Amino acid sequence: MIFLYIALPLAVAAVLPLVGKISKKALPDLLGNATLAFLLVYTATGAKALLAGGPLVQRLSWFGETVNLQVSVDGFGLFMLLAVQLVSLAVGLFSVNYMDHYGAKANYYALLLVMIAGMNGLILSADLFNVYIFLEVAAVASYALVAYGLEHDELEASFKYLMLSVIASAAILVSIAVLFGMTGGLSFSAVAEGLRSLPSAGVTALCAALFLMGFGLKAALVPFHAWLPDAHPSAPAPISAVLSGLLIKVSGVYALTRIFFNVFGLTPALSQVLMWLGAVSVVVAAFLALGQKDVKRMLAYSSVSQVGYVILGIGLGTPLGVAGGLFHLLNHALAKGLLFLNSGSVQQATGTRNLDEMGGLAKRMPVTAGTTIVGSLSIAGIPPLGGFWSKLLIIMALVQAGEGALAVIAVLASVLTLWYYLILQRKAFFGKLNERWKGVREAPFWMTAATVVLALLVIGVGILFAAVLRTWVNPAVDILTRGF
Amino acid sequence: MVLHIALLAGLVLFSALAILARDLIKSAISLAVSSLLLGIIFFRMGAPYAGVFEISVVAGLITVLFILTIALTKTEGDVRESKLARIVFPLAFVVFALVDALVMKGLLARIPMLQSAAPPGTFSDVLWKERTLDLVGQIAVILAGVFAVLALFRKRDHHD
Questions:
Q1: Measured distance CA(A144)–CA(A441) in Å, rounded
Q2: Which residue among A121, A231, A289, A372 is least crowded, i.e. fewest CB within 10 A of its CB?
Q3: A118 in a structural domain
Q4: What are phi and psi for residue A317, nearest 5 degrees?
């Protein structure tokens, strides 16, 4: 019953504001997290078995009459669903304590669940217009969540995000309309079929360019990244974790990959464009991250840079490259989710995001400091953590395909990544304890628990990387490179 | 063709006005006019249902909601219009509503005569049987919008 991924969070979201009238905190916490936990357990256990017979298409009936409520999942979709449910649950648990001081918790969980339903819906769609609709579902919820604190900065960041996101949606919608007009279909298979028999390559190229711009904006690839360093730091920490960990990947990378691989087909020219867009993002955003003093802004630029790695690997198009890209997507989702949550713990304890004002916090917040090291080292690509293996796969794939220059860029940018994460560690957690933070305490239970779980996952994925690749990543690679 | 270009130009003009106008009422009315023009364009291009929905929902219902909301939330500190504007805008709105109603009436009467109109039943078949997942998505968008309004207009007494 894969439709549950959409229906359950939506149904729970619909009743949450009413539940909030009865209980302001406990029941919304319980209901929100129980839903997320159920979806994660379902993905890890039930959904895998459903897929054993190949990609699954489900049609539902409505009061006895068959309607086209068609959702489908394959290896790639299931891999993305796993990433979404993993990070979402950690974010839900973290919110139990963190969102207390924002008020209106039931409303917060309702928006979070709608955003997750939107991401799940996008992953389960096999139709261009469904993709667009669920893209908007997740986006509308995320605009409100970015502005959730209602301060000036948050409202401004949300407005900027909204404006650029509307441009992205418009580009995507125009491309869908043109494709519908040319091929007469909207489902991935019908459009792919129609495009094969189409004589005009120019219009196809235009549609591809519009998708690249639209989804590039959603994924915040350089040069479409301007909104992200404002929007992600301004949101409450758990939402930053969802946006950076998941949303840019689902509504940007996933949709782009799905459409370019399964609808257009990856041509050598498109592959080169994607790889260079990825490489430019990796390098430019890494340099921009180096100069940041605001810890969440540094993490946001790091997200742009790491999404560049994902696109670099996937854009290469070889099975090894795609495997590296997708594995890096999972590793980055876990580690960046963890780092944004930790930045929230630090901000709540100290009231600042400025790295220059911190210092020595490891003495007061040992768990937060420890888990931050795990996340940072994974993203920087230090063995045996997950990020090391995924970057290694991407670099090996680049060398294997004769893209030596891009491989060198990937290695050098990885050094830059390590550099700015070491700056973050040194300024925030190491050194002498700043007098101002004598009274600082470790984050409350649920916040710490969520980050510890994510840190253990980051370590676990690194140590068991072969099993993760075999079980979750390879079926996704098969769908993208071989089509089954 | 000339009429078509005029309609498109009007659409762009009123859309721009909707963004540029400082007064919210003027902005809402400009949006309604642009939506009316868009509805007529839809209709002329052989998409009668899209035209009817555009005019009835966007130009009609949503405009009424906008204007009600603006009327209910306006405070003393807002932009005060001149006496002329205060008379002209309610008048303009009434005229617009009349035109809207007349156009709607005309369009509804002409739907069955349109050659390009879909055969009876097809429209609802497409909407309910083929694009059902879109409807689920649209319910989700509405939910997101309602929760967003509840979140953004909540009292801030708990936030430090």
A1: 31
A2: A289
A3: no
A4: 85, -10
Nearest-angstrom CA–CA distance, A279 and A269: 15
pTM of the model: 0.88
The tokens describing A447, both together, are 């916040």
Model ipTM? 0.88
Domain range for A479 is 266-484
Which A residues, 85 through 144, put their C-beta within 8 Å of a C-beta on chain B?
101-104, 107-108, 110-111, 114-115, 117-118, 121, 125, 127, 129-130, 133-134, 136-137, 140-141, 143-144
R_g over Cα of chain A: 21
Residue A165 belongs to a domain = no
Judge whether A168 lies within some domain.
no
Query: Burial letters for A20-32: b for 16+ Cβ neighbours within 10 Å, e otherwise?
Result: beeebeebbbebb
pLDDT of residue A329: 96
Q: What letter would DSSP give residue A351?
A: S
Q: Phi then psi for A150, rounded to 5 degrees?
A: 65, 10
* Vertex A32 angle, CA A27 and A36, to 5°: 145
Q: What is the DSSP string of A145-196?
A: HHTTT--HHHHHHHHHHHHHHHHHHHHHHHHHHHHHHHHS--BHHHHHHHHH
Q: Which has the closest alpha carbon to A322: A123, A474, A124?
A: A474
Q: Is residue A385 part of a domain?
A: yes
Bridge partners, A72 (sequence order):
A57
Cβ contacts (< 8 Å) between A104 and chain B: which residues? 150-151, 154, 158
Other beta carbons within 10 angstroms of residue A139's beta carbon come to 22
- The four Cα atoms A97, A98, A101, A104 give a dihedral, to 10 degrees, of -90
Question: Which of B131, B133, B153, B154 to mutate against chain A (most A CBs within 10 Å)?
Answer: B133
Q: Among A195-199, A395-399, B99-103, whose mean pLDDT is lowest? A: B99-103
Strand positions, DSSP E, A160-292: none
Structure tokens at A11: 């149904």
HSE, side-chain direction, 13 A CA sphere, residue A274: 30
Tell me how far the alpha carbon of residue A204 is from its chain's centroid: 28
Q: Which amino acid is at A1?
A: M
The length of chain B, given as a count of residues: 160
Q: Which SS3 state, helix, strand or coil, does residue B59 take? A: helix
Residue linked to tokens 């349109």: B114
Residues of chain A positioned with their CB less than 8 A from the CB of B152: 144, 147, 150
Q: Check A147 against B130: CB less than 8 A apart.
A: no
**Alpha helices by DSSP H, A293-318:** 295-316
Strands (E), A67-133: 71-73
- The number of distinct structural domains making up chain A is 1
Q: What is the pLDDT of residues A292-314, one digit of tens each?
A: 999 999 999 999 999 999 999 99
Q: What number of other Cβ atoms are within 10 A of residue A442's Cβ? A: 15
**Residue (of A471, A125, A121) closest to A323 by Cα position:** A471
